[in-house]
Amino acid sequence: MQHYHYIFTGSGLSALMTVYEMILSEKFKDKTILLIDENPKKTNDRTWCFWDNSNLFNKIISKKWETALFADKNFQRNLELNPYQYKMIRGLDFYKMVFDLIPKHDNIHFINQKVINFEDLGSNCLVKTETESYTCDKIFNSIFNPELVKSQTKYPLLQQHFIGWFIKSKEAVFNHEIATFMDFSVEQRGNTRFMYVLPTSSTEALLEYTLFSKDLLPKEEYESEIQEYIQKLGITEYEIIEKEQGNIPMTSYKFWKHNTKNIINIGSVGGWTKASTGYTFKNTTKKSKELVKFLLTKNNFRNFHKTDKFWFYDLLFLDVLYRRNDLGSKVFSALFQKGNPTLIFKFLDEETSFWKDLQVIWKCPKGLFIRALLGRIF
Prior knowledge:
Elements: E1 2-9, H1 13-25, E2 33-36, E3 47-52, E4 63-65, E5 67-71, E6 76-80, E7 85-90, H2 91-101, E8 108-111, E9 115-120, E10 125-129, E11 133-141, H3 147-150, E12 157-169, E13 178-183, E14 192-199, E15 204-213, H4 219-232, E16 238-251, E17 263-265, H5 281-295, H6 309-323, H7 328-338, H8 341-348, H9 354-361, H10 366-377
Parallel strand pairs: 1-2, 1-11, 2-8, 5-13, 11-17
Antiparallel strand pairs: 3-7, 4-7, 5-6, 9-10, 10-11, 12-15, 12-16, 13-14, 14-15
Helix pairs in contact: 1-2, 1-5, 6-10
């Protein structure tokens, strides 16, 4: 049975980002590392977007925007993002970047197998796939088990679920200098529903019909809403270049409570997704850096994660949306109609002082959040 220092069960964003940070640090050359995943990561299965004011992954940024549109049925506002830019990375470009690096390091290996079980045995860990077993010192797990959240009621679970079409239209209807961050003008139907439009040229864009809600929809409902939105844009003829769909858990559930000394949960199963927005990429860049730094000095994964004020803000926000999912449009509109976009994005990046936090929070409907706060206190 082959032994490794580190095994990653799953090779999604969090695993690949952590391995990438290990490579950059140049301090893990003496450690054997294995990534195991049934998905070979050869297709463009997702698109990540994030706001940023640095050169983070500039080589694989496929498009960036200086301005983002927010809209509902009553108003539209162009959000000037300076000093941020809204940036897009195709999943395949990120996978290729990391998988092109891996063969250059003899200590890092990838195996295309399905993990069926793993456990902490105390002195080491065991990982079983459908065909083989491996031992290791530490496991980094990113395989999501939804039952962990569904089997409890203390922390509500919403899902950010969507289907997206990347289309090429006959008519030049898109302003490729403005990304539609959230358009709540679509029918809400008792949920929090919006369109998300990322134009890459005047005739090409990714359109995603997105919900923050408890339950998924039939596939046909997402796609009919996209078709209706396309018609409203004045497009009469178009070609679908690519499709994508996703379901991101939005919860403040304490996933890290399931960490052991030698097994750490990372990515969505580790609570790395920003609970109130479902944004994952930027959070993962931060968490992976923290984790690699942790590995250099500490040994017990139970000590990695700590809750902070932003975790509590997200918890209250999810309490509100879970109880009154029909008011999501109202909450976001209150925030973005008159709020400072730069301050809001800095707040969502968890980089604000308590005083700045209050300036953002004060824009939200106060009654809803006071009720949620009292509910948590009592």
